[in-house]
Amino acid sequence: MKLSCFLTLCLALILTSISSLFANDVSDWCPDGQKAFARGMYEEANLALSSCLYNPPEDPVLASQGYFLRGETYFDRSDYVAALSDLDLAVELWPENAPAWRTKAWVHYNQEDYLAAIQAITMALEADPHSTESNHVHATILTAMDRNSQAMDAYDLAYSFETKDTVQKLQRALEREGFNVGSTDGVYGSQTRDALKACIQADCILSM
Q1: What is the DSSP letter of 116?
Q2: Cβ of 194: how many Cβ atoms within 10 Å?
Q3: To bridge 100 with a disulfide, which of 37, 59, 68, 117 should be the other Cys (CB 3.0-4.6 Å)?
């Protein structure tokens, strides 16, 4: 498996998760930490979030987001013990925090603890079953476990009903890995699915 592709995919999924959370978060809680993270300034974000979390907000959802964000900064530096500690707090405070569950899955995946990764991504999908990101991560984990048929099912759930732009990103990712999709037309059809099947057989990791 290609580590660089894995890290690229992680970053893309993390940024998507953060954007989704920020879209629903209209509070002023820890703005320096949020802004630093959104700008990719993870060291600064970690410091700001740690300061804010010295006295966590009473709102469990806001506190969960804070621990999730700081967990992401630890994940970025490959400090998996600290990342899991914060992510565990995040999902304990707010069990519906799908992005936190998804990042827990990535951490366990990176540690090659695939059973724990499956458990975490299952919780993410229970919280948000229609998430393309979570279904994509699910497919990646299943591929690593050689559960190829289930991996294909997960990719189908991720992309069958997605927009043209998102499917085009998938097609370009497959092309970058050397798989023929016919054309990057944004249609999740037979050629794209055949390319995905070949990708699964090759244990590839798609950077989106």
Answers
A1: H
A2: 15
A3: 68
- Which tokens belong to 129? 């079953």
Question: Could you give the angle at the alpha carbon of 194 between the alpha carbons of 189 and 195, nearest 5°?
Answer: 100
Give the residue among 114, 120, 125, 113 at the shortest CA–CA distance from 91.
120
| Residue 157 Cα distances to 30, 153, 200, angstroms | 35, 6, 15
Neighbours of 97 (CB within 10 A): 27
Alpha helices in 53-162 (DSSP H): 60-76, 80-93, 98-110, 114-127, 132-144, 148-159
The model carries a pTM of 0.84
* Residue 43 to residue 122: CA distance in whole angstroms: 30
Helix (H, G, I), strand (E, B) or coil at 165: helix
Q: What is the dihedral of CA 115, 119, 121, 127, to 10 degrees?
A: 170
Residue 26 in tokens = 């209209």
CA dihedral 134, 186, 169, 202 (to 10 degrees): 80
Separation CA 154–CA 174 (nearest Å): 16
> How open is the CA angle 200-192-102, to the nearest 5 degrees?
55
